[in-house]
UniProtKB/TrEMBL annotation:
GO terms classed as biological process: glycogen biosynthetic process
Annotated organism of origin: Cephaloticoccus primus
TM annotation in the entry: none
Nucleotidyl transferase domain segment(s): 9-276
Any GO molecular function: ATP binding
Family to which the UniProt record says this protein belongs: Belongs to the bacterial/plant glucose-1-phosphate adenylyltransferase family.
Gene: glgC
Record's protein name: Glucose-1-phosphate adenylyltransferase
InterPro entries registered for this protein in UniProt: ADP-Glc_PPase, ADP_Glu_pyroP_CS, NTP_transferase_dom, Nucleotide-diphossugar_trans, Trimer_LpxA-like_sf
UniProt entry keywords in alphabetical sequence: ATP-binding, Carbohydrate metabolism, Glycogen metabolism, Nucleotide-binding, Nucleotidyltransferase, Transferase
Amino acid sequence: MATRKQVLAVIMGGGRGTRLHPLTAERCKPAVPLAGKYRLVDIPISNCINSDINRIFLLTQFNTASLHRHIRETYHFDPFGGGFVDILSAEQTEKSVDWYQGTADAVRRNLNHFRAFDHDLVLILSGDQLYKMDFRKLISAHIESGADVTLSAIPVPLSRVEGLGLMKVNDSLEIADFAEKPKDPAVIADLALSPALEKQLSAHAAGEKHCLASMGIYVFNRKALAEALDNTMADFGKEVIPSLRGRKKLCAHIFEGYWEDIGTVKAFFEANLALAQPLPPFNFFDPSSPVYTLDRYLPPSKINLCTVDNIVVGDGSIVSNGVLTHCVFGIRSYVADGCILEDVVLMGADYYETPEDLAENKQLCRPNLGVGKNCTIRGAIIDKNARVGEGCTLDATGKADGRYAAGAVIVRDGVLVVPRGGIVPPNTVV
């Protein structure tokens, strides 16, 4: 209850999501389906709820309709706990008529909304990461250190720091310097943790040095946040927080659990397929920290006469007489007879087709929702409400990024994608 009263959580709804296109062509990143039945935004919201933080703001801007609908239908709090998930979309005001220019700009424009609620701390989170964290530990460390700002950081071997924002810390975890995506080996070596901190890492590997990478998760004192945003800087990680060095006390909090930034098609694809492993790195089955989502009241799934190996199947799916290896199927997925699917993320559908719909499909020579008979698909994401006709062969192996089959199929980051609502004609070969 003490955490509830002192903390506001702010989840960033993301920009245009260009690196995750075409999955973000009709939705924002936090609304992208995950693990058969969830959406990415369910992860930070569930982490907040499980950490006794129930006052949550979600800042949104691009392609927000499906995200807003999901939040509205999913998260309902009783009136006695004072909890909410409140959506704050970019809006025109007398001071501004343009879009959010970055993470810091988005928070800056909504400070007036936050002031209406008693709070001492603001927890700022990303809406497109996969992890489980007890934010109470982060908040306790922030308070105990006397920091103005605390950054959650993950230890990364020096050999794997490419593309990450890094920080240098002393033995008390106070941040001394930042380096944004450094490439110079000498600079990277200078950011390495001290031997004393290395010994504290539970994941310490003999002979391998680590440095700390920012996770994009921040705790600000209320006053420090207002002062940090009293300027025109647009981004927290690149501008605002580095500018505070020497003016505010900045500390790191080390997180050693599983964390994945799902910012690209390849990262999204691999994170989903990892959930089909016998012992996945992210545990949806932990009763002590459940992941919440919309209860859709769908019927159980039916799998008939299939050979299956490591698959996840969402509610209300129908899969018949196929060979399925290392796949994740979303809600209302349909796979017809004779299909071979390997390393496939099939997101399912928003609705079931009626007999009238099926008759119309036949009249229009349009495939039914889902995957038709005798298809072979490997290394692919089939987005929601897509239609793959009978006898198709879709395989990303060796394919250069680009559009195929007259634009019905897109290869991005080496992953074959059938976009949301896309139609792949029967007997297509890619």
